[in-house]
Protein 1
Amino acid sequence: MLTWNLPNDPCQIPLGKMKTAKTIYDSMAGTIPSSLLDYTQMQTATMNRIEFAVYHYQVLNVAYGFATVTTYTQQDSVARAEMNAIILNLMGAFDCISHEINTILNLQINEREVMFGHNHKQGMSNCIICRISTTDPQLSTLMELVITSDWFKELKEYRNHIHKRLPVIQVSMVAGGSFRKVTLPDDPSNYNPQSPDFSKKLELQAYCRDRIDNVMVTIEELYQKLHPQITQYVTTRRTASP
Ligand SMILES: [Zn+2]
C-alpha cells in the first residue's frame, strides 16, 4: 500500500492571478445580512471550483512522482481521477459565475435553467449570453469570446464526454527517463484511440496546468467587468439590512 501526503486545504489555495475576484470575496467578509447570503455562497462556489481544480492538480503532481513499477498502476488511476476532477471543476466555475450574473443583473432566470454554453441560435431566454446581449453588450461580447475560443470549446468537449464515458488516456514511458507521460486523445469522442490519435500531444499535466491558467484569467476578466455591478449589489443589500 502506497502512502503519500495530500496537498493543503483545498478551500485555502491562493489564487494569485485573481485579484479582483479576491477583492470581491473579501468585501463579503464579516456579518452577512440574510439578503446577501445567497450571492455570497454563489461567489464562494465560483472561487472554490477553481481552488478545487488547483487542489486536484496538486494531487496530480504528486501522482507524477510515483516512479516505481509497483506504483505505476496507481499513478494511472490517480491521473485519470484527477483529470476528471480538474475538468469538471473548471467547467463548473463557469456554471457558478453564470448564477452570479443571473443574480447581480437580476435576470430572473430560473435557478435550474441558468445556461452558459450558448450553443444555439440567438434568443434563448435561459441563456445568460442571449439575455444580456442588448442590456450589457460589453459583457456579452466578452463571454462570446470565451466560448468561441479553441481552448474553451476543447475543454467543454472533454467535459461533455466525461458525462458519458471517460476519455481514454494513453500512458507511455519517456525514453531514457524515469517518468511516464499521460496523454489525452485528440478527439475525446474517440473511444478506441490508436497511437496516431494522440498527435496533439495533450500531455495531461501540462494540459491541466494551461487550462487552469485559462480559466483563472477568464473568470478574473469577468469579475473585472462585473466589479461595479457587484459592488452596487452588495452595498445596497448591506445598507438595506445591516
Ligand atoms: Zn444564448
Protein 2
Amino acid sequence: MHRMFAWFALFATIAFSTIPARAQSSRGDDDAEREEDLVTAYKILVNEGILDSFGHVTFRSAKDPNIFIMPRAMPPSLVTKDDLLELRVSDSQPIDPKGRRVNGERYIHGEIYKARPDVMAVIHTHSQAVIPLSLTRFKMRPVVAQAGFLPPETPTFEIRDARGADARGVQVTDSPRGAALARTLATYPAALMRGHGDVVVGASIKQAVVYAAYVDINARMQTQGLLLSPDIKTMDQAELFTPDEFDINRPWEHLKQKTLDEASRAKIDRSQFGLTQTQEKK
Ligand SMILES: [Zn+2]
C-alpha cells in the first residue's frame, strides 16, 4: 500500500470512529499503566540524551479522551507519578493545578490531541540531532532501516508563519501556535520545528518513545551522510513500512533496560521476553 495512503487510512479509520468514554484495559486501570509508562518514557528519553532540560511527554487519558496527562513544569530527569496533572484537551488548561506551575508549552500537546483522535501520546524534544536539519533546505527523509515508519518527507514547522507580526519568541505558548503546529504535523508521526526541536506522536506511549528514538538516530545519520555528500540515497517506497509491520516492544524493552543498573537488570525475569533455554547442552 502506498505509504501516504496507509497513514491517511489509519487516521481516517480512527478519526471517524467514536472514542469510547471509558476505554477498558484488559489489565484493569489503563491510566495507571499509562502513568507508569510515562515515567519510564522520561527515564528512557533522558538516558538517550533526547530530552534536554525542557522537553516533555504526555498521554491521553484512557478514562476520558478529552483529558491529557502532563507533568508540572520541571526537569525531565526528576519526573515521578506525583508530579502529573490533568489538563483539558479543549484549552490546554489544568483541571486542578494543585498549586503547581504548569508547563508553558502545554499547547503543543492539547492542540495535537484535539486535531488527532488517533494520537495517545505526544513527545516534544529539543533533540540536538534534528535541529541542524531543521535549519536547512533539506527535509528529514527516512535513511535508517528502523525509521521506515517516517513519510518520504517529514514536515518542518516554521513559527514565523504562526505568530502575529508583533509577537516574539520561538516557543509554542498559546493555542493558535499549537494549532498551527498540529496543522504542520497533519497525519504524520513527526514534525521538525525550525531551530527548536521536534514533535513525535504515537498510538501509545511506547510507540511514541520508540519513534522519537529513531527520529533522533535518523536525523543524525542523514546529517552525517549529507556532510559526506549532498547526494545521499534515502529509503524508497518499497523500504518503508506501516506501524503494524514494526514490533516496538523490542526497542522499548531494550531502551528501558538501559535505564536500570546492573543489579536491577540481573533480577529481570528473562522468560517474559521468550529468552528461555531451548536446546540441551551436549
Ligand atoms: Zn520547546
